[in-house]
Design brief:
mainly alpha, two-stranded antiparallel sheet, 5 helices, 2 strands
Length: 117
């Protein structure tokens, strides 16, 4: 799959498909409250990611989604950021230089790890 058009959680890869207006209505408020440092913020983040997963895998319930094994915080952040760009909530990164923040370095490392054979 093309870069930024999919994300990995655990050992599962999910495409990022075009969103409906109904999905945007659900996603945008979730993005405004998502935060990995709080329980409610983490719930918003995982709910937003599951909403994106439902486009390509509607058979995966939220309960099943929560049972995906091997997912990391870096993978969650990478998925969240890619979905955010796809819906226009975040601007795509325009610089070819990697962001120096530890969080972004973890996201980049997780993405690179997924691509290695």
């Amino acid at each position: 799959m093309t870069e930024n058009k999919s994300f990995v959680l655990g050992q599962m890869e999910f495409p990022i498909l075009p969103f409906t207006l109904g999905q945007l209505q659900t996603l945008v408020p979730l993005f405004s409250t998502a935060d990995v440092s709080t329980v409610s913020g983490m719930a918003s983040m995982t709910t937003a990611i599951h909403e994106a997963v439902k486009s390509s895998a509607p058979e995966i319930t939220f309960a099943e989604f929560q049972k995906i094994e091997g997912a990391s915080v870096a993978q969650l952040l990478a998925a969240y950021n890619k979905i955010g760009v796809a819906i226009g909530y975040f601007r795509p990164k325009t610089s070819s230089k990697p962001d120096g923040s530890p969080e972004m370095q973890a996201v980049i490392a997780a993405d690179d790890e997924r691509r290695e054979p």
